[in-house]
Amino acid sequence: MPVQTIPARIRWAVDFIDVHPNDHILEIGCGPGAGAELICSRLETGKLFAIDRSESGVDRTKRRCARFVQAGRLTVRQIDLATLRVPVKRLNKVFAFNVNLFWVREAADEVALLYERLLPGGTVSIFYESTRRDEVPLMVENTSKALIGAGFRVSVVDQKQPAVIGIIGRK
Questions:
Q1: What is the bridge-based pairing of β-strands 91-97 and 74-78?
Q2: Which domain of life is it from (predicted)?
């Protein structure tokens, strides 16, 4: 299998969330598996639960990260966030990159579900590639509004190189 690179924007975002070896993390929208690969490489006793609505995204992540699935560090499921069932208060972190759900429509139910399942002090880190600077204010406004509405304290990180905007919700 050819070596697959991890884009700088994904590296930066995963570095930002500061994965600890025992973290329990939910990745929303795992796509091709670059984030999952990097997160799982930093876990020891922790686990990543990666979801995507796309069957091809799930398949790509499973193939790319087969060693982590076999080691029990990664579970990948084709499911929509709205129907996700995770044991309450088990997650330390939630990670999403370029998941439009949080800024293109009302996501109050999904964000409330995340709030309910995060441990105290846990974080939801939602990142967008911000190459379309004209969309950034709407991304920040809508995502922040959803997080604040669920009870999160919100901060925004605007990284110029690579061009990434992060909206971070802390419980």
A1: unpaired
A2: Bacteria
What's the distance, CA 93 to chain centroid?
A: 8
Structural domains of the chain, with CATH: 8-170 (3.40.50.150)
Bridge-based pairing state of the strands 118-129 and 164-170:
antiparallel
- Joined together, the tokens standing for residue 142 give 């809508």
pTM value is 0.94
pLDDT of 69-116, one tens digit each? 999 999 999 999 988 877 656 899 999 999 999 998 889 999 999 999
Residue ranges of alpha helices (H) inside the chain are 8-17, 34-40, 55-64, 66-70, 101-104, 108-117, 136-150
